[in-house]
Specification:
- By secondary structure, the chain is of the alpha/beta class.
- The protein has two domains: about 160 residues, 3-Layer(aba) Sandwich (Rossmann fold), CATH 3.40.50; about 140 residues, 3-Layer(aba) Sandwich (Rossmann fold), CATH 3.40.50.
- It contains twelve helices and nine strands.
- Helix 3 packs across helix 12, helix 6 crosses helix 7 and helix 6 packs across helix 12.
- The radius of gyration is 19 Å and the shape is globular.
- The two termini are about 30 Å apart.
- The mean pLDDT is about 95.
- Bound molecules: phosphoric acid mono(formamide)ester (CP).
- The site of phosphoric acid mono(formamide)ester (CP) has 10 residues, from helix 3.
């Protein structure tokens, strides 16, 4: 864990997540998953969407299986949607409260995992602040157990990447002709990394990652994307604009990070800055939002915003992923 090169971590994780037949066993990163598999997952997720007011889609495809949610970092959307997704597929769902778990008494993460494995928890959904934890666990569990990455440091958030590209596909169709602008703290954002992995595999026309220089990513982590430090230049004629919050919990030293007013003036996604994007551009945000810092509140609530649709899609994507690893398990 905490290896020096996140690209090496991701290459290693990519190799680990498919079984010998190419079926998805773990979901650790979107890097290395091919276009056909990404598209199949998005198609499956579409099948779990129902109209507002209708009952949510359900199946019994995971009946008898147990999903364990292990969130060693805070979460609202990801944790709640994995919980609902598991229940809507008929699984038993265990939400471990890590703050009152024996981790607080010094138990190692592997001993926690082995304990849950001994209770027949078949699918473990893991969020952790350290690089490499989901893959580390995946290397140690029994062959029938699946590990799903629910957010790994600043490295990867694969189900978020899937729900983001599903939302874009619903509004804009094919990716080839799209200009997509992601604005904010790219350097510390696992959301930006997973979106970049998915969008480049799906053949996006122009992906722009916009931030102040101090929050820009290393170029070798985002091949295929354009790194831009000027919002007007980056957002010009964009079809999709995604705002990201500043990940203060991952920034040791805040020196050089612009203050709130300066940041919003120069990098805030607002009604004003959206005038530079295409008139039919959509506005996205993975949440949680800091209104008035990276995004203007009334824009987030306005007609261009698809933020609540991202949340709805999150449940469908997580159902698609859970169902898929459940099928891999059943085929063993
Ligand atoms: N987008 C996202 O991961 O939100 P949560 O931290 O609330 O899960």
């Amino acid at each position: 864990m905490n290896a020096a090169d996140p690209n090496e971590i991701l290459d290693d994780e990519a190799a680990l997540q498919l079984d010998a037949n190419g079926n998805l066993r773990h979901l650790l990163t979107l890097k290395g998953l091919d276009r056909a598999l990404l598209t199949d997952i998005l198609d499956d997720a579409e099948g779990y969407l129902t109209a507002p007011g209708d009952l949510p889609a359900r199946s019994q495809s995971l009946a008898g299986r147990t999903v364990g949610n292990l969130f060693f970092e805070p979460s609202t959307r990801t944790r709640a949607s994995f919980d609902l997704a598991g229940k809507r597929l008929g699984a038993d769902v265990l939400n471990l409260d890590v703050n009152t778990s024996s981790r607080k008494k010094g138990e190692s993460i592997l001993d926690t995992i082995y304990t849950l494995q001994a209770m027949h928890v078949d699918i473990m959904v893991v969020r952790d602040a350290s690089d490499g934890v989901p893959a580390y666990i995946a290397r140690h569990v029994q062959p029938h157990v699946s590990i799903l990455n629910a957010g790994e440091s600043d490295v990867s958030h694969p189900t978020q990447g899937l729900l983001d590209v599903l939302t874009i596909r619903q509004h804009k169709g094919a990716f080839e002709n799209l200009t997509i602008a992601i604005v904010g703290d790219i350097r510390h954002s696992r959301v930006a990394m997973s979106a970049t992995h998915a969008l480049t595999t799906l053949g996006v026309g122009d992906l722009r990652l916009i931030s102040p220089p101090v929050l820009a990513p290393d170029a070798d982590k985002v091949p295929g994307a354009h790194i831009v430090d000027n919002l007007a230049e980056g957002i010009a004629d964009a079809d999709v604009v995604m705002a990201l919050r500043i990940q203060r919990e991952r920034i040791g030293n805040l020196d050089g990070i612009p203050g709130i007013d300066e940041y919003f003036a120069n990098y805030g996604v607002s009604h004003d800055s959206m005038k530079l994007a295409r008139p039919d551009a959509i506005v996205m945000h993975p949440g949680p939002m800091n209104r008035g810092i990276e995004i203007e509140g009334s824009l987030a609530d306005g007609s261009q915003s698809v933020i609540t649709q991202q949340v709805t899609n999150g449940v469908a994507v997580r159902m698609a992923v859970l169902d898929r690893v459940g099928k891999t398990m059943a085929a063993r």
